[in-house]
Amino acid sequence: MSQAVLASRSVALEQMASLSLPTKRDEAWRYAPHKKLGQLTFGPATAPDAVPGDIDSQIPHIKGPRIVIVNGVVDASLSRLDKLPSGVQVVSLADAPADLAAGMLDREYDGPEDAYSIINRAHGAGGALLHIGARIDETLHIVDVVVPGVAHNASATRVAIEMAAGSSATVVETRIGSGDTFGGSNVRTEISLAPDASLEHIILQDLPSAQIHLGRVDVTQAARSTLRAQLFNLGSDYSRVAYHVYLNGEAAHADLSGLYFGFGTQTLDQQITVVHSAKNCTSRQSYRGVLDDSSTGIWNGGVDVRPGADGSDSEQSNANLLLSKQAEINTTPRLEILADEVSCQHGATVGQLDEEALYYMRSRGIPKDEASRLLINGFADQVMEDLHIDTIRSWITERLGHDDA
Amino acid sequence: MLHVENLTASIGDTQILKGLNLDVGAGEVHAIMGPNGSGKSTFAHALAGRDGYEIGGTVTLDGADLLEMVPEARAAAGVFMGFQYPVEIPGVNNMYFLRTALNSVRRTRGEEQIGASDFLKDAQEAMALVEMKSDFLYRSVNAGFSGGEKKRNEILQMAIMQPRLAVLDETDSGLDIDALRVVASGVNSLRGPDRSMIVITHYQRLLDYIKPDFVHVLVDGKIVKSGDHTLALHLEDHGYAGFVNHDLDDAPLTGVPA
Q1: Measured at the alpha carbon of residue A273, what is the angle toward residues A269 and A275, in degrees to the nearest 5?
Q2: B217: β partners
Q3: Out of A110-124, A145-159, A245-259, B81-95, which region has the weakest mean confidence (pLDDT)?
Q4: Which one of A355, A356, A366 has the shortest CB-CB distance to B104?
Q5: How many angstroms separate the CA atoms of A78 and A173, rounded?
Q6: Section A336-348 average pLDDT
Q7: Using 50, 70 and 90 to split pLDDT, how confident is the model at B246?
Q8: Per CATH, which fold does B2-250 belong to?
């Protein structure tokens, strides 16, 4: 293990001694199930005795390279890393060459880290490191699997993605779990975009309904770089994905969108902060939620425009569809502007199935249940309008159709 | 074919239809005219099966009791309503919607499902009828359509559904003269010996293009006068004032059959 990984880890282990978990008084953790979170147990990454054999049935079949991480440890037999495109390195953090690891893993962020980020640094040292030095057409797939164990029921995985100047790539992170016992995963992804780099980053979260997912994505963007981040927050008992995007270079662009689709007693939590620190940056946040049964959705989306970030342009929207009287959505657009000549728009909507549209469709002979399904899918599919990877599209539609039945 | 007897409709304490009687024979086109608030749209929705009304009386189509049926069953029985305000359905592809609709009524009738490529041929014929460009099929249902495009989409749907009874609710509202001509010629080409139509309108203008066999005046929830197409011309000249006052005998009618 390289010095950078070890150093980052030993600092975190020290911090662990005085760790205090978030409480409901922390705004960003207000709706989290704190009692259940307290029952997650983390420890040094160890591969499970039995690797789940059927992960292919749970994930989209994306052609191209993939790295599979089980309980925080890269599983070489499940991974496909023999034919990487030139200019791309995909390695286990544990094996990362010192020159790659240095600079990627000791990055300082200007916000305080939460307890789960510290836990992640302490125990997630077996994750993945991607270095992209070219324009890549192939989709890179990172699959994270948690298999709750006896020693500890939760896994930590650290992912680092470094985009060199002018490079471009698509990276998909599929996060799943095995079994129906309580447990969870803690995945933190750190992304760095050099000038003119462009990354499409997609998270597919689909852990079993007995498990918890804690995701965090930290992105720093240099001048004229572009991030397109999509989140499909579907599985888990409680799943929280937090984005912290720092637009540090002029004319950087971040486009974040997502869909959360809750059933049963699920709680799906999205926490987004985009910080405009340089001139003429643009950001978009566009999220949709569908909440059925007694599920709960949280959308907390913020834009901070720092002094000097003149010419910032941001838009935020959050649209929600509540399918049941017991379903709940908590939506909070936040905006803090400390610069000039800024355009920031935000809006949130909460609605139910449109009775007029249902009647219209039924008057054309479409049975009520099918009309409802068409309306719900029509609402949700709008998040996928710009998603051009067919295998992911069909995986999502099948996944939603399956639960919808 | 369609038999409506003593039809009443209320919402809460407000009675809107107060005993409406109407018989529409096969192949006939009936126009229903009336002032705002007379119950024209309520009549159309009562036929299509909208929720929220307290309904009384009898409505049968080819002997089948329509009032017992949910809206989708009425569609399968052959009822089609052209909406005054077609609903926008973002995210639902127009072609997928149309094919789902057609296959739903076919399934209910025990008919074979129609495949995507056969359907596309039928859809293209129907589109030519209302002079629609092919990109219409790939857009979301009515989303972002102009008023005229929405109404043409209604007639397109009618052409695809091939209904036994078409109820067109204020199909002319919001149309400029060119769009009106396109919509009306689409409707006319769908007239046939086995298809009946009820054309609901406030203005006589539409009836210059779609010539009805019968015209009925609906006032305060009842049909107060019936006649041939010249009744519409009379209304154009004299308005509804005479009927609203129930002072029918004084109104100078012309060309009404005895």
Answers
A1: 175
A2: B33, B225
A3: A110-124
A4: A366
A5: 15
A6: 93
A7: low
A8: Rossmann fold (3.40.50)
CA distance B62 to chain A (A): 18
What is residue A265's three-state secondary structure? Answer: coil
CA B36: distance to chain centroid?
17
Each residue of A204-222: b (16+ CB within 10 Å) or e?
bbbbbeebbbbbbbbbbbb
Pairing of strands A267-276, A296-305: parallel
Assessment of whether the complete model's pTM goes beyond 0.90: no
pLDDT at B136 over 50: yes
Domain extents in chain A = 3-249, 354-405
> Which of B48, B86, B92 shows the shortest C-beta gap to A374?
B92
Inter-chain residue contact A363 with B51, CB threshold 8 Å: no
Q: Does B101 touch chain A (CB under 8 A)?
A: yes
CA atoms within 13 A on the CB side of B16: 19
Average pLDDT, chain A: 93
Q: Return the structure tokens found at B243.
A: 């009927």
Q: Provide the pLDDT confidence category of residue B252 given band limits of 50, 70 and 90.
A: very low
Residues in chain B: 258
What is the 3-class SS of A218-241, one letter each residue?
EEEECCCCEEEEEEEECCCCEEEE
At B8-51, the pLDDT tens digits run 999 999 999 999 999 999 999 999 999 988 999 999 999 999 99
* Residue boundaries of the structural domains of chain B: 2-250
Pairing of the two strands B2-11 and B54-61: antiparallel
B131-135, B163-167, B206-210, B234-238 — most confident range: B163-167
Identify the pLDDT of residue A111. 67
Q: Is B57 left (phi over 0), alpha (psi -120 to 50) or beta?
A: left
Q: Is A309 in contact with A337 (CB distance < 8 Å)?
A: no
